[in-house]
Amino acid sequence: MLYQSTIDRAGIVETAYRIEPYVRRTPVVAASAVPADAVLKLELLQHAGSFKARGAFSNLLSRAIPPAGVAAASGGNHGAAVAYAAMRLGVRARIFVPASSSAPKVARIRAYGAELVQTGDRYSDTIEAHDAYVAESGALVVHAFDQVETILGTGTLGMEIEQQVPDATTVLVPVGGGGLISGIAAWFAGTNVRIVGVEPEGAPTLAYALEAGRPVDAPTGSIAYDSLAPARIGDLNFPILARNVERVVLVSDDQIVAAQRHLWHHHTIVADPGGAATLAALLSGRYVAPEGERVCAIVSGGNSVAVNFA
Questions:
Q1: What is the pLDDT of residue 126?
Q2: What whole-number distance in Å separates Cα of residue 171 and Cα of residue 200?
Q3: Which residues pair with 219 in a beta bridge?
Q4: Which residues of the chain have pLDDT under 50?
């Protein structure tokens, strides 16, 4: 059966019921030793190691799958999620990633049985090869962020946060192409919950787009290049974000690494750089929570080689 949903609360609820048998309800824990009343939404414990599994299953369960199967271009986490979803559903998958993708992400894709193609130095460099394969094979494109079903899938994370942290006043969300934050922003649209994006200084895709009033190319140099550094915000994502995101804060690579170490020392958690970005904003003071605010910071992924935690 094919499904068509609008990117709103009703569409997200419908998607949540559809993907529920295939995704985890990830835990929330109190954040230790941070200058705020904050909790961490541990989405790095999701299947395939990141929130991306939600969008992957939303796509594969909502759209017709051709004989050629599915294809995805990814910095790593999205590819692993699509590979995992394809494995669970018995679908053929070909995943395109940059040569620079981290070893744990590449290993996951291979372990899930997808055909892996490593090409180019950055996420944007893989698109040409991916698009040529899709044109030749007729495979279904599962986009990492600029796709209705992907956004509906990430919106289910916002739904969970509302259920698990009903007193949250602010949600800190890491930003790459905008898939995660647009789904969460769509869920909380019209409520009093504030949505704040967090990006690396070296990959300010949403910051550039908001300043320009439209998606524009941004720098892609950051330690979080393989999860938070696409060339630009998605066309579907931007209108949602322009309406519903209060602001964006930028964090340095050093602050991200410090947050990774903090997560290890205080929570025994190994997050990838993108996953640690929201905590970096709190620890560094780039985001200062007003008195009385209850913050939920999303730790979005954990497919990482451990940093030096000494």
A1: 81
A2: 17
A3: none
A4: none
> Which one-letter DSSP state was computed for residue 65?
P
Calculate the alpha carbon distances from 114 to 50, 200, 246 in Å.
17, 30, 38
Round the CA-based radius of gyration of the chain to a whole number and report it.
18
Supply the pLDDT for residue 222: 65
Where in the chain is CATH 3.40.50.1100? Answer: 9-51+147-299, 53-141
- What pLDDT shows up at residue 292? 92
Question: In terms of CATH architecture, what is 9-51+147-299?
Answer: 3-Layer(aba) Sandwich (3.40)
Collapse the DSSP code of 234 into the 3-class scheme (helix H, G, I; strand E, B; otherwise coil) and give the result.
coil
Name the token pair of 142: 């599962």
What lies within 8 Å, CB to CB, of 291 at 6+ separation is: none
Tell which CATH classification among 3.30.565.10, 3.40.50.1100, 3.40.50.720, 3.40.50.10330 matches the domain 53-141.
3.40.50.1100
Name the helix (H) or strand (E) containing 174: strand 170-174
From the number of C-beta atoms within 10 Å of its C-beta (0-12, 13-18, 19+), residue 135 rates as exposed
**Whole-number Å distance between alpha carbons of 158 and 164:** 10
pLDDT at 2: 67
